[in-house]
Amino acid sequence: MPLHHLDVLADQPFAEIGDPTLVVDDPAYDVVVVAGELPYSQWFGAGTASRAHARVGVYDRTDLACRQVESLRRPVNDVAIHPSGTLVAVGTGAYDGGYSFEGELLLLDLERARRVSPLRDARQVRTVRWVDDERLAVVLAPWHDDDVADWKDLVGDAFEIEAPWRELRDRELDLSTHDAESVPFVYPQPDRAGARAALQRLAAQAGRAWALRRAVWSVAGRPDGSVLAACDGVAAERWDATGGDAPGWRIPTTGTGCQLTALDATTVATTVALRPPWIDGRPPRHESQHQVLDQETGAVVGELVPESASVVVGSTGPYSLLRPATRDATSTDSLVIDPAGRTVGRVATTGYDLFNHWFDIAGAPDPLVLVGTDEKKPHLDKWVTRVVAAGGRPELERLFPLDWQGTEQRHLFGGPGVYVDDELGTGIVHCGEVHASSGSHGPFAVRRDYPAGAARWTLDLPGVATDALEEEGVLVITTSNGWLVRADAVTGALLEAVELAVHGAPVVPLSVSTCGPGRLAVGLLDGRILRLEVVATEGT
């Protein structure tokens, strides 16, 4: 049952790049090259998908269509277009935070859609400049900063290299045989304001518009096909089923919209991660803001007031939770809230960190949280725990270990999941990672009986799960490296795994929801919302 692209909400030129850091716009060429960065795919409540996403893209000057886009390990420092206009040199790299200046030189062949990293050694490339058709001048950072007490004294190496650039292979070029000139090394500082202004100007010249938009952390589709979304700078917005150039309503924020949690059939609770300023050079405490909205109109009908930065833990039952989600929380107690958003009690949960305790189980009849048995080490021996009403008072009930092989066997991280009720009975499918001492992680999905906890099946995932849902017996799981996985909820059998793309360029899905029968809305790291339809084929 293949996936069919319906449309892309919040689409715009240069969306693939994220926040631009460098724009090379030379009228002598029919392309514009843009470097940028998508944000870290994590927020204070959820950190399993934690990596940055640097990008460089090549765009047609006339219609701004994306000709080629590349995901990079490190940010771009400089770009130079070859005199032919069909080859682009890209210098990348950054300080590793403690010792080395790491990076690479990339060559983008626009005629063959080919990417090559020709330098043998991984050093930060500060500047690139074509001298002529055959010679490229580059400045490399020093290997490390061990020999200087002040970065003002850093010295780089300048090379002028002649090579058959279109024929080079990865790691083929050894600069140890080339003469270098020692030059002062100035660490790059991107002109973000200038780059943003350049994209606005280029878009306007093409009769379009560009604005910085990133990280759709939550989507909530409705049966009529409309979609609620939360993203960077937007607490919540509602897109009509027909799409359009702008949402029907939008609630802007100075922070990042991270959660949209249904409290009942008509209201949704928002979670906004705020960005308070640094104080005396010290990072600020995290803060969060929560409102209760009418799903149809966006009207604010209530407010949730946390004691510390918190995540909302929803359920289809009478209670939801506001759980403190930072190490500096004033209390680890979670506030119990009713569908109107009123606080009706509190329960004693243990400490929280974004890697270990994120546990977002869609459609669960009770609020489900991960709680450690040792208050001093809450990341260890985690149990799936629910909030139940006992004698009219909400209380925590410990159900089963997060690790189905036993509490002492492995260290598992939390993740997203979904409640299921089918021929196997009631259960939850939860995703996460197995942490290995070697540093490698194994992403997984597992089905557990609810509330007993017995494991029915496990499924290895191609990447770290960012969200999950179930519809008509089929699980849909998105991953931080660009995959959408569909699996049978009863057997765990893999039905389909698709690398998502928009306009031919790969994307990173952060959230997924149904938006009508057989339709999906996928929130993307670049700020867009991809709507898909599951198309039945003959025999399915």
In a few lines, what is going on in this structure?
InterPro entries: WD40/YVTN_repeat-like_dom_sf (IPR015943). By secondary structure, the chain is mostly beta strands.
Q: In the CATH hierarchy, what is the class of the largest domain? A: Mainly Beta
Secondary structure: helix percent: under 10%
Structural class from helices and strands? mainly beta
β-strand amount: over 45%
Radius of gyration: 25 Å
The biggest beta sheet is recorded as:
6 strands, antiparallel
Q: Give a count of the beta strands, DSSP E runs of length 2 or more.
A: 41
CATH topology of the largest domain: Lipocalin
Provide the domain count: 2
What is the overall pLDDT average?
Answer: 92
Helical element count?
1
Distance between the termini: 7 Å
In the sheet with the most strands, the strands line up as: 14-15-16-17-18-19
The low-confidence runs, each spanning 5 or more residues with pLDDT under 50, are none
Instruction: Indicate the overall shape.
Output: globular
In the CATH hierarchy, the architecture of the largest domain is: Beta Barrel
